[in-house]
Every structure is written in structure tokens, then in C-alpha cells.
Amino acid sequence: MALDLESSTKKSAIGIDRYWLWRWLVGIAVVAALPTVLVFVDETEFAVVERFGRITAVYDQPSQRGLHFKLPWPVEAVRRFDRRLQLLSPPGREAFTRDRKNVTVEAFLCWKIADGRSTELLDCPVVKFFQGFGSVDVAESRLASRLQSILTEQIGRSELSELLNAEHSESGPAEGPSPLEKVSAEIRNEFEKRPDETKSLSDRLGVEIVDVRIRRLNLPAGNMQAVFERMRSERQKIAERYRSAGLAENRMIRSRADRQSGELLAKANADAERIRGEGEAAAIHILNEAHAKDPEFAALLQTLESYKQILNERTTLILSGSNSLLNLLIRGVPTSTKSTPETTIPNADNPANMPEKADRAPGVLP
Fold first, then answer.
1. Do residues 204 and 99 share a domain?
2. What total number of domains does the chain contain?
3. DSSP states of 178-212 as a string?
4. What pLDDT, in 10s, does the model give residues 186-205?
5. FRET partner for 354 with CA separation of 20 to 30 A, picked from 26, 40, 178, 326?
6. Which tops the pLDDT comparison, 192 or 91?
């Protein structure tokens, strides 16, 4: 009896342990499946819910941001797509212009998944994007391929001078919109709607083209050095032309300045000669008036001036007895000259004997 009671107690304990084990297992399963039941849609993304490959819900409206519920995985799965602006910049490729010039063109494409505009699940742009591309990588690969083909076609319709917006190498860019902007607009129109297609890219694949621009237009690496040498020689020619024009202008300015300076110097010299002549005439007139007042005293001053110019410590004179210079040295000043008041030697102590300035002016009679 005691043995049966003990065995029944063990069985009941085992049953209780199994019960709690199942509860723990169910709880863990619920906790593990809870994240697959909740769907949080961020502001930067679109969400598509599919059940066994069939789309059951699309969250692409601003009012649908936030928390949603679905069946746990693997019954329903969530596909998320970035709704922000995407930048596609494929590597450059070579293309021929209409005048058969080989150039390297690089362009970039701004695109995004179009915003939701329809309540029908299959008409939503994100659904069309998912069905047409499947992922962003596949979409960028196909968009890059189409961009390259359209870009090559548009470059082939224009000449190189038109793309560079210059008539020749010496002229600057022309006014008005750039031809590259026109090419970018044509590429965008080709993306939006081709002539053989009735629907736009947004209606067919859910992709919206925001902008297309040509980033760089360059020459191939093989031709770049030769083109640089040609550009350098052309610039040297232009520099030589400017330099020769500057030298010619320099010579013209210098000749004009030399002519003007010569005219000014000639006029100044003529004025100086005229003023000098007038001064000398005035000086001679004053000297003649002074000599006319006392000719004998003037002759004496003239003789003394001659002594000053001829005689010094090393002078030896040989004169005849009748020479006036010798007479003055032997006989001295004539008496008539000494007694004349005008010829009296000036004395600073006797102001009455001081002659006037005109009478004391030294000089030589003409």
C-alpha cells in the first residue's frame, strides 16, 4: 500500500514538471515569434507584406508610418525598401560626337521609389518596383545600363564644339543655357517616356527620375597628351601675339613720350637762352652806364682785372716800355685819377667816399 502511494506521488510530480515545461516552451515560442508579428514602418522606408509569395499589405502612405501587426514568420514576411533619394553614378564611358570626336562622358542619376498614389495593392509604385526589380541593386544595374545607352545616343547627336559651348579654342563660353543642360534634359525625357512606350517609368516600374546631369566631359587618356600639347602651342601663339602687340604699344608710347620731352626741352632751352640774353643785355647796359660816368677809373679797373687774370706766383712777363700794363706798374695810378672824387679808393671808415653800387660794378668795356 505504501509502495503504490509512493509511485503515484512520483507520477504526479512528473506530470507537474511536464506541464511547466510545456508552459515554458510555449512562452519562449511566443516571445520568439513576437518580433515577427510586429511590423514597424520607419519614415525612411516602404514596407510590403507578403503571405506565401502573395502581397497582402503595403505601407507607403505618410499616415501608415508606425507599428502594425501581421502573421508570424514564415506565414508572412516583410520586404523593406528605402524611400529616400538615391544617387547613381556609373563609371564614365567613351562616346563619339557627331563630328567623330572621341570623348569620355560621366553622368549621375538621382532617382527614388515613387510615393504611393493608389489604394489598390498592385497599383502601388513600391509593388511595381518590387515586381519589376526585386531589389535596389538590380534597379541600379538596369538604370545604369539604360543611362549609358541614352547618354551615348545623345552625345552622338551633337558636335564637340557645341558641347563645349565655344565656337573655337580662343573664344569663351557663349551666353545662354549650356548645351550639356539640354542634353541632360533630353536624357531625362528619354527616361520618363520613350516613343515606343505608352506609360512613364513611374507607372511601369514605380521609379521616379528626379534629375540627370552630366558630371564630366573629358578626352580619352590616350589622346589627352596630344590634345594638351596642341592646346599649349595654341596658347603660346596667343601669348606671342599679345606680347608683340604689347611691345608695339610700348614703342609707340615711348616714341610719343620722347617727342613730347624733346619739345618741352627745346622750349625750355629757348626760354633759357632768351632770358639769358635779356640778362646779359641788361648787365652790359648797366656796365656801360657805370663806365660812362668815369672812363679813367673804368680803365684802371680793367687793368687791375687783367693783372688778376694774368699774374700769379709763377708768371713771368716780358713787356715793352710803351705797354700800358707796364706803365701802371712803373708809374702807378695817374694823378688825375687819384684826385678825382669818383676814383678815390673806398674807405669803410668814411661813408662819404663809398661809391654807388652801379659805379662799383666790375667789368670790361666791349
1. yes
2. 2
3. -HHHHHHHHHHHHHH--TT-SS-HHHHHSEEEEEE
4. 888 887 766 556 677 777 88
5. 326
6. 91
